[in-house]
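Extended Data, panel c. Modelled sequence:
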Amino acid sequence: MIRSELVQNLAEQHDGLTYGEVERIVDIFFSEITAQLANGGRVELRGFGAFTTRARDARTGRNPRTGETVSIDAKKVPFFKPGKEIRERLNVK
């Protein structure tokens, strides 16, 4: 599912909201998660999971096309840890 499909599904399920209103809500939701992570915070959605950031050290990589070694800077990357409920739903037999 892509973002536009999510907005469309939510708009169809909630007759009192227009497509534009739902789109704005989804935009705010994602921007708040992004802002919190950018500030080094954590976002926990009970029953769904938690978003955090993890640090990656600087390293030496290789350009696959030329074989040349390149320096890769240290960076932060987003990390998602699923909650218990979502893990259970994914592993139903």
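The CA atoms of residues 47 and 85 lie 5 Å apart. This feature is highlighted in the accompanying rendering.
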